[in-house]
Amino acid sequence: MFLFLDGSISQVFSTHLFRYSAVMVSHLVVLWLICAILFEDRIDMPLARWAAVMGAVFDLYYTGIFGVYVFIFPLVVYLTRVLTRYISPNFLSGLLIYFIDITLVEALGYLASRMVHLTNMAGSTFLVTTLGPTLALNLALFVILYFPIRWVYNWLN
């Protein structure tokens, strides 16, 4: 559901999210993966496989390059599980973990685009025009959606 919501948000708010001076990319799929780990990690879920499938769908539907997010999303799941071993999951630590994961997703996506010559944007330009605004948007979405998502997970249990 969050995969299609990402596309809908991007389409509806495209004039506000994709400007020349700042590009904000919604990563609700990553939010779903992080929340699944934070709220349900004690249950043995095949989350890495789901992340790979979501990465494949994301690659084919949004990027057109197969293989980038197929590896990035499972890497995010792995990193989040490692971080939750050392940091007890709560709202603030979840915000920190989400910050790290969004930075990883955007940076690896940028590096992959640079490697296949889809972009020629300088690293400093990427940091200012894409990474910063994307972090701001996604952290705001995390703050807004954290408690409703936690309520849904508690209700389902």
Automatic annotation (TrEMBL):
One of its GO terms (biological process) is regulation of cell shape. InterPro entries: Cell_shape_determining_MreD. The chain crosses the membrane at residues 20-39, 60-79, 91-113, 125-149. The keyword Transmembrane applies. GO terms for cellular component: plasma membrane. Keywords: Cell membrane, Cell shape, Membrane, Transmembrane, Transmembrane helix. It is a multi-pass membrane protein. This is Cell shape-determining protein. It comes from Levilactobacillus namurensis DSM 19117.
